[in-house]
Amino acid sequence: MSTTRNTNLLDPGFELTLRPMRYPDFYERYRDAIKNTWTVEEVDLHSDVADLAKLTPGEQHLIGRLVAFFATGDSIVANNLVLTLYRHINSPEARLYLSRQLFEEAVHVQFYLTLLDTYLPDPDDRAAAFAAVENIPSIREKAAFCFRWMDSVEKLERLETKADRRRFLLNLICFAACIEGLFFYGAFAYVYWFRSRGLLHGLATGTNWVFRDETMHMSFAFDVVDTVRKEEPDLFDDELGRQVADMLAEAVEAELQFARDLCGEGLPGMNTESMRAYLECVADQRLTRLGFAPVYGSENPFAFMELQGVQELTNFFERRPSAYQVAVEGSVDLDEDF
């Protein structure tokens, strides 16, 4: 095991030295994440049970599919984090943050487990939800997309060549921009659509905190990409841009297939075409953040998502007893896209 100082972030080895600190911004991200600690026990889902009984059959189908996706989505992210990101991002400061992120993914999994236990009291229904990646085509397609990008780097022991590093970058970008930054943001839109109608406040409360965590995860990953771009700019050529655009296009289509499953012929205020515009808008924002040209030109049709950042900023400071265990000092850095 090498403990020598490396030149670049993706150089092979296992850097252990924190002083002098080479990537202090990663360390600050770790410290900021600690301030955002929350527990599942702080989420009150009791009122949701009564709300579920008020939903139409179409809305109940949507919720069933949504919680089925939640059941395994963060577990897939956590697996990639351990098997790929922690292995190849050679910075002790970054690994501190990734360790914290792994804890947050575990809290998300616990939240969704509690959500399933509350929403689906029948054990057979819960078992079917956890088997969704095998039995529900629209969820299976999203999972297959994730696993393909995990498999693409599975056998990489060390990032020795330019091709190795490009493969790793594509995996990192996939999980940040497509999975956390698109699949989850699609799911959040359904949750906030219900909240905008005064329904499922417990689900929305837990999702607020997951939203904050996922935004920070995505921002950290993009910071890693920025660092690699500075250190190894030759990796960021037209071919990589095309690969990232194609990847996001595939992710948009997979999420649209999921939307067709959830929305059917359409629900009041929520349908496949609106979701298409929203996903395309988000995809363009991810491409722009990564330094690539946007491709869709769509605008966000969901006003309740435009308000999300403002509402959470207010709630964060006014609802501390039911929001976070540890108060946050200074400004709150939400996803500026919304």
UniProtKB/TrEMBL annotation:
GO terms for biological process: deoxyribonucleotide biosynthetic process. Its EC number is 1.17.4.1. The keyword RNA-binding does not apply. GO terms for molecular function: metal ion binding; ribonucleoside-diphosphate reductase activity, thioredoxin disulfide as acceptor. The keyword Membrane applies. Its cofactor is Fe cation. Keywords: Deoxyribonucleotide synthesis, Iron, Membrane, Metal-binding, Oxidoreductase, Transmembrane, Transmembrane helix. It comes from the Bacteria. Tetramer of two alpha and two beta subunits. This is Ribonucleoside-diphosphate reductase subunit beta. It comes from Streptomyces roseolilacinus. The lineage of its organism: Bacteria, Bacillati, Actinomycetota, Actinomycetes, Kitasatosporales. The gene is nrdB.
